Amino acid sequence: MRACLFGAGEYHGERRDLLTGAYIIAADGGYLHAQSVNVMPALLIGDFDSLPELPTYTAVKRHPVEKDDTDMALAVKEALDVGCDEIVIFGGMGKRLDHTLANLSLLLSLKRRGIRGYLVGEDAVISVMAAGEGLTFPVLEEGILSLFALSERAEVSLTGLQYPLTKGTLHKDRALGVSNHFIGERASVLLHEGELLVMWDTVNAPLPTWERM
């Protein structure tokens, strides 16, 4: 089951198609984004320091401002508790770089639990891969794909891109995987070793297909 979580970061109505049939949670000010696309969250959660008024027609879980988890981390926990195995975060990027980085760490945490996660913004979609996984993208005539090693090293193979690679090594302290390009072919990313952050700017394209190698 897919969960779609709304945060209080920047959101401009991206990927409304992903909301169909999803379990919806709004984290604090993310409720306003859910309202903007006429979505009724099953749950509103957070410390509510960025929401002027609480609705009375949806379930609400209030937490203290002084807490260990971000509001989005609380929303992720709720999604996992109801059995969601794919989590899409909207409004999780923007001017608050600290919250953007926190949400990237959530993607890594989810992956280590075997959960597929996406961070969707106006100009990029971000996900995390684990060793032994493959991603296949539909035919895209243009667009940029960037890869970043989250582990000290990541061994990667790439096909169908401007810069193919066969079991090449990306390192955590060198951004070698930035700005590859889709070229109108089915593109694939195979991760043989390590952990990998994957970012692409074709936001409105279908999500890639996942497989085990």
Rounded mean pLDDT is 94
Q: How far is the N terminus from the C terminus?
A: 23 Å
Q: What would you say the CATH architecture of the largest domain is? A: 3-Layer(aba) Sandwich
Structural class: alpha/beta
The overall number of domains is 2
Walk across the major sheet and give the strand order: 4-3-2-1-5-6-7-14-9-12
Shape descriptor: elongated
Fold blueprint:
Blueprint: E1 2-6, E2 23-27, H1 30-36, E3 43-46, E4 59-62, H2 71-81, E5 86-90, H3 97-112, E6 116-120, E7 125-130, E8 133-137, E9 144-149, E10 153-159, E11 165-171, E12 180-181, E13 187-193, E14 195-200, E15 209-212
Parallel strand pairs: 1-2, 1-5, 2-3, 3-4, 5-6
Antiparallel strand pairs: 6-7, 7-14, 8-13, 8-15, 9-12, 9-14, 10-11, 10-13
Note down, in words, how this protein is organized.
This protein is α/β, with parallel strands linked by helices and 213 residues long. The chain has 2 domains: 2-122, 3-Layer(aba) Sandwich (Rossmann fold); 128-212, Rossmann fold (3-Layer(aba) Sandwich), CATH 3.40.50.10240. The chain has 3 helices and 15 strands. The chain has helices at 30-36, 71-81, 97-112; strands at 2-6, 23-27, 43-46, 59-62, 86-90, 116-120, 125-130, 133-137, 144-149, 153-159, 165-171, 180-181, 187-193, 195-200, 209-212. The strands form 2 sheets. A 10-stranded mixed sheet has the order 4-3-2-1-5-6-7-14-9-12. It has a 5-stranded antiparallel sheet with strand order 11-10-13-8-15, with no helix packed on it.
